[in-house]
Amino acid sequence: MESIFAATCEMPHFEPLREDTTADVLVIGGGITGILTAALLKRAGADVLLVEAERLCSGQTGNTTAKITVEHGFIYADLLKRYGKEKAKGFWEANMAALEKYRFLAGKIDCDFKTCDFYAYAEKDHKALGEEVAALSRIGVPSRFVKTPELPFPTVGAICVHGQAQFHPLRFLAALARDLRIHENTPIRALFEGGAQTTDGQTIRASNIVVATHFPFLRFRGGYPLKMYQSRSYVLALEGARLPEHMYADGCGKGVSLRSCGEYLLLGGAGHRTGVEGGGFDRLTELAGMYYPDSRVAYRFAAQDCMTLDGMPYIGRYTKRTQSLFVATGFGKWGMTSAMVSAMLLRDLILERPNPYAELFAPARPLAPGPFVCNVGSVLMHYVRPTAPRCPHLGCALRWNEQERSWDCPCHGSRFSETGELLDDPATKDLQSAKVRKKQ
Ligand SMILES: Cc1cc2nc3c(=O)[nH]c(=O)nc-3n(C[C@H](O)[C@H](O)[C@H](O)COP(=O)(O)OP(=O)(O)OC[C@H]3O[C@@H](n4cnc5c(N)ncnc54)[C@H](O)[C@@H]3O)c2cc1C
């Protein structure tokens, strides 16, 4: 299950923290969000410490597909309806700034950074495609409509955004991490005013703390379990498939995504809410057989991401009342530009510099009641299901995932192996193995 990126990059190693320490800024989590945030803060002169529970990029970042684009599916039509032209344009500008920052940083790093176009296609949904074309033109995003994109299945057209990029995320992050003060195998167990405590009992004192743990690990503060869920997706690296020149993804988020990676084609998709049946490797393998019958699967891997209720990440102060505790989460499977937007915004908030997008991404922004009630309803439904085992995060009923042989939580996305070891956050501990030895 090792991803093509993990298999082709040796990440640098860092010792665990063994004694109490201090820093201006403590960044918790060594995925793309944590590493970029620490790197930009350090370049701005801050004294930063990054701690990672396991190894750097051992979370979702190691299993991404690393398409860097400002077109996060057909998002602008939705943002325009929900928040109006100014905010929809702000979202585009913030992501453009992130793309340009990558271009600048990657210029000095050997990470297969390649400028290419991004196509958001629609398989059947004329209406969604038409609305997105209209929204992009209203906001002033440079893009063009393409009637027949080069794909091995029929579509009703695509939107082409010129000058986006793809890269090897781990080679890029390994280069940035080498210059940082980092401790791996150092999980944070609790936060207190002005610091944090590790699982092994060391204290880290810091004036500012950034929670970059993917799903925020504090269980109740900020209400994240009510306003976010996780969605899982699968990736095959195919050998012998025709390689696309550019990058592609279904604008409606239901079909497959494509990009090249060296001699391989990365085919992603078959996604579903974590803990709910549907999709998976079987479905993606079936699609690979239909679209690329002469190819062979060289790597297969999966990951999941946090989905917010309005499609925009939560980046900023952890709650309205926390002045020096920050968070970046909810990237909706578009974490490359979102992580860079987070790093730039959190750097500015911590260093008390102005940033035009602070309000736009604020985690405490008001959310529409419809999606909120729907998500809470879905959490409650899974909570009251009278089956064991229960998730140690908030007690929801876990579901058995036969394809990946894991216990998955449909409420917030924690996952556990067949014998109960923690695989994915937000839970922070294993299941009691006696209860899960057998599929129930
Ligand atoms: C299949 C798939 C394909 C994708 N493809 C794309 C794409 O093409 N383009 C794009 O823009 N986005 C893509 N994404 C999204 C992107 O991969 C994610 O948004 C991004 O990797 C999330 O990074 P992160 O740093 O927030 O989380 P992670 O990489 O999960 O990092 C969080 C880290 O925090 C650590 N941690 C957790 N708790 C603690 C603790 N208590 N103490 C210390 N450390 C802790 C974890 O061990 C982990 O290493 C994709 C997502 C999926 C699922």
Chain-wise SSE layout:
Blueprint: H1 4-7, E1 21-28, H2 32-43, E2 48-51, E3 67-68, H3 76-83, H4 85-106, E4 114-122, H5 126-139, E5 144-146, E6 157-166, H6 169-177, E7 182-183, E8 188-192, E9 195-198, E10 203-211, E11 228-239, E12 247-250, E13 257-261, E14 264-273, H7 281-291, E15 296-308, E16 314-317, E17 325-329, H8 335-350, H9 358-361, H10 369-384, E18 399-401, E19 406-408, E20 415-417, E21 422-424, H11 433-436
Parallel strand pairs: 1-2, 1-10, 2-7, 4-12, 10-17
Antiparallel strand pairs: 3-6, 4-6, 5-6, 8-9, 9-10, 11-14, 11-15, 12-13, 13-14, 16-17, 18-19, 19-20, 20-21
The protein binds flavin-adenine dinucleotide.
Flavin-adenine dinucleotide (FAD) binds at residues 28-34, 51-54, 58-61, 64-67, 187-188, 212-214, 217, 233, 235, 268, 303-305, 331, 333-337, 339, 425.
